[in-house]
Design a protein that fits this description.
The complex is a heterodimer of chains A (315) and B (458). By secondary structure, chain A is an alpha/beta fold. In chain A, 52% of the residues lie in helices and 13% in strands. Chain A folds into three domains: 152 residues, Rossmann fold; 48 residues, no CATH class; 98 residues. In chain A, 33% of the residues are buried. The model of chain A has no long low-confidence stretch (mean pLDDT 85). Chain B has 458 residues and is of the alpha/beta class. The two termini of chain B are 49 Å apart. Classes of the chains: A alpha/beta (315), B alpha/beta (458). Chains A and B meet through helix 2, helix 5, helix 9 and strand 9 of A and helix 2 and helix 3 of B. Chain A: This is AAA+ ATPase domain-containing protein.
Chain lengths: 315, 458
């Protein structure tokens, strides 16, 4: 149970996540620390690829807990997120029990007595046996707690948000036939959103709101260092500097941390020792995902490389 | 410290961050965990618990910095005065002996405030100001006109009367001390004034803004002053955001009670068609389609400007808008509005068709000739204009055909109802073919008109 104990300090969170290869900024560490201290879900917003989902994975790995992931999409409903009755099994059981019915009701003389006897078997078909737990219910049933990742909540319908409210505030769900199921151990809940639509106030109110933006240059260098150990220091500085320059452009999709890591891997694979015009031009498609963006960035490559290298000299 | 937190929450609300009681409880629990020692952590904690969007985070961050930068008491000490200080502490007991008769029960003849100022105890002065601010309920400050009142109240609470008496007494006996006290008083006054100004910044913002917006909302759009145009634009954007929040909910709604037999059968095929799961018919709502015809001649232009701005900032709710501008003739302006900033777009539109004398008949004819097919039975047509056609042929027959083709025809007229039909106004003639005719001269009326139009699609 030592794993589920709240962590002692913000620094402990930072180092714990770092051990899993997730370099967290101070704000992220504070959020994780607070969410454990006051038992609140974290709602993480930010552009794609800055490590929102990674954060949940890192927390799960660090605290040695199971991670349960619920990917949201339009049309996701109760039956797929929370629980479902095993209809086929229920049907099968009724068929089997048909033969038994005579034996069970054999002793009853009147219709009324038979009904009374039937009632004693009452809720057999709507019991735990026939419930198929979906991610949300699974998360509540984990004996050692877990990390529940509700990914891209903004993709789901507005009604689905309301479904989450009970879980988020009280860590319990109500199944009409069974009553309320409370969490065995409160799960650590992480919700992520790309701000595709505004989430409801009720949902936001129940969460700590963490916005992860693009990291500062120093932090991003550390992230690349931990994820791509093979990269040399000068190249790392140059490429992160270059990416920061690219982000200053007005592009359709700015390169984020995951692209930076991919690019670092590509550069290592190509055995580049430092950035030059040719290699950047050839690998720019790793960084930028739209043709228009690549066209916009290409004329600037040389200038950006020069800038990035200069920065490297001084820092 | 609880008191301070509460004041901070109020300041945060003033800065436009919606802090609900539940959120303030969360914030307090969080603060209890992290403590006050590290200001950066405290700041992060507030940003995490209170602010729920990026804009709010920015506003709250600023608010935090402002709140925790208490104005420092102004230090009047120079090296020379410090030397004086030494003399003074020697001289004080001597004055004490003199003053006993006038000082009454007090052991020293100067009031506590004067003592504080003379001893240059900055923390004591800060605390005194904070206490006096509390006593004067400084956090209730709302308008800049209240600054004087609060300044006086705080100084009174700090015992300025006693200080003045002290200064008067001293002038005769010890002019040097009196002068120092006088300086210190000026300094103190400055510090308190800073504190009051800061409080106004913290707590007054919301109220002042509300007041200004309320005035703007009810001001005739056609006559607002150029310096207010920018404020008006931001107000219109606020209105757009509000409408967007209200109407951008999904347009699917279940029609309970109507079984969708086809889908039910298909869904239950696995159980041999025994309907375990039922599917209900859904009703799809149309997204609003709007065709806007805006008069941009003379006095109506400004209203059209704001109207177009409002309609086009509603793109999340209304995704199909075609706008047309006319005075003497009519052109389509959708692209101009979509691609350029409001200022540039309006300038371009004006240079193309603006400021002519309006000819409704001709403009309607232009519309019918080229764009009549944009109107479908789902379209709401909005005409914005004063219907003053300079006694030219009004061509109400075209308006009738537009009405027949469209779902609704709404006429927004910036003129008051009183003047409709007088002079060259053709309003009564046009009104017969309109689903609704309403006056639309202020931002408030504009909001209501657009809100009603969008609501018909819900």
């Amino acid at each position: 149970m030592a794993d589920t104990r709240p962590t002692a300090s913000i620094e402990a969170v930072e180092s714990g996540l770092a051990a899993q290869g997730y370099i967290a900024s101070r704000q992220i560490a504070t959020a994780v620390y607070l969410s454990q201290q006051i038992d609140k879900p974290i709602l993480v917003e930010g552009p794609a690829g800055v490590g929102k989902t990674e954060l949940a994975k890192a927390i799960a790995a660090w605290r040695g807990m199971k991670m349960i992931r619920l990917q949201c999409y339009e049309g996701l409903d109760e039956a797929k997120a929370l629980y479902e009755w095993k209809y086929a099994k229920q049907l099968l059981y009724t068929q089997i029990l048909k033969d038994k019915l005579g034996e069970v009701l054999g002793g009853a003389q009147t219709l009324g007595a038979a009904l009374d006897q039937l009632h004693t078997f009452g809720d057999v078909f709507f019991s735990k046996e026939f419930v198929e737990p979906r991610p949300l219910l699974q998360a509540l049933e984990q004996p050692n707690g877990c990390v529940l990742l509700i990914d891209e909540i903004d993709k789901s319908d507005a009604e689905f948000e309301s479904l989450l409210l009970e879980i988020l505030s009280d860590f319990q769900v109500t199944i009409p036939e069974l009553g309320t199921v409370a969490a065995v151990a409160p799960p650590t809940v992480i919700l992520t959103s790309n701000s595709e639509r505004d989430l409801g106030d009720a949902l936001k109110r129940r969460c700590l709101h963490l916005h992860i933006g693009f990291p500062e240059q120093r932090l991003e260098e550390r992230i690349v260092e931990s994820r791509v150990p093979g990269i040399s220091q000068t190249l790392r500085k140059q490429m992160v500097g270059f990416i920061h320059e690219i982000r200053s452009l007005d592009l359709k999709k700015l390169p984020s941390v995951s692209e930076a890591i991919d690019w670092a891997r590509v550069l290592v694979l190509l055995q580049a020792s430092e950035l030059d015009h040719e290699i950047v031009r050839d690998t720019l498609n790793v960084l930028l995902k739209y043709e228009a963006d690549i066209e916009a960035a290409t004329p600037q490559i040389s200038a950006f490389i020069a800038k990035a290298s200069r920065q490297g000299v001084f820092s | 410290m609880r008191e301070n937190l509460h004041r901070f929450f109020r300041a945060a609300r003033g800065a436009g961050v919606r802090v609900s009681p539940a959120e303030s409880i969360d914030a307090m629990r969080a603060v209890a965990q992290v403590g006050f020692a590290d200001r950066a952590v405290l700041r992060d904690t507030f940003l995490l618990t209170l602010a729920k969007t990026q804009d709010e985070k920015r506003a709250l961050g600023d608010c935090f910095d402002l709140f925790f930068s208490q104005p420092e008491p102004q230090q009047e000490t120079s090296e020379q005065q410090k030397a004086d200080d030494q003399n003074q502490s020697g001289g004080n007991p001597q004055a004490d002996g003199h003053g006993d008769s006038s000082g009454g029960a007090e052991s020293e003849n100067v009031g506590p405030l004067a003592q504080m100022l003379l001893s240059q105890d900055r923390t004591a002065i800060s605390t005194a100001i904070a206490n006096a601010s509390g006593a004067a309920s400084l956090s209730d400050i709302r308008y800049f006109t209240q600054r004087g009142i609060f300044l006086t109240r705080i100084l009174d609470a700090m015992g300025i009367q006693r200080l003045r008496d002290d200064i008067d007494n001293m002038t005769a006996r010890n002019p040097a001390v009196a002068e120092r006290l006088q300086d210190a008083l000026t300094g103190l006054r400055g510090t308190v004034r800073d504190a009051v100004s800061q409080a106004l910044l913290l707590y007054g913002r919301e109220e002042t803004e509300n007041l200004r917006n309320e005035i703007l909302r009810n001001a005739p759009l056609a006559r607002i002053e150029p310096r207010q145009v920018e404020q008006m634009r931001s107000l219109i954007r606020q209105i757009a955001r509000r409408l967007r929040e209200r109407y951008s909910k999904p347009r699917k709604r279940q029609r309970r009670g109507h079984l969708d037999v086809r889908r039910t059968l298909r869904r239950n095929a696995a159980w041999g068609g025994v309907p375990f799961l039922t599917a209900w018919k859904r009703k799809h709502r149309d997204r609003p389609k709007i065709v806007a015809l805006c008069d941009v001649s003379g006095s109506v232009a400004r209203v059209s400007d704001f109207f177009l701005l409002l309609i086009h900032s509603l793109h999340e709710v209304v995704d199909d808008v075609r706008s047309f501008a006319f005075s003497g003739h009519l052109i389509e302006v959708s692209d101009i509005l979509a691609k350029k900033s409001p200022e540039e777009a309006m300038k371009e539109i004006m240079s193309k068709v603006g400021f002519g004398s309006s000819d409704y008949g001709n403009s309607f004819a232009d519309f019918e000739h080229e764009w009549m097919n944009t109107i479908t039975p789902q379209t709401t047509v909005i005409v914005l204009g004063d219907a003053r056609s300079n006694n030219l042929d009004p061509r109400a027959d075209i308006l009738r055909r537009i009405d027949e083709r469209s779902k609704r025809l709404v006429w927004l007229n910036p003129e008051g109802r009183m003047t409709w039909g007088f002079g060259d106004s053709e309003m009564p003639r046009y009104a017969t073919f309109c689903t609704v005719v309403r006056q639309c001269a202020t931002a408030k009326q504009l909001e209501r008109a657009v809100s009603d139009i969008v609501a018909t699609y819900q």
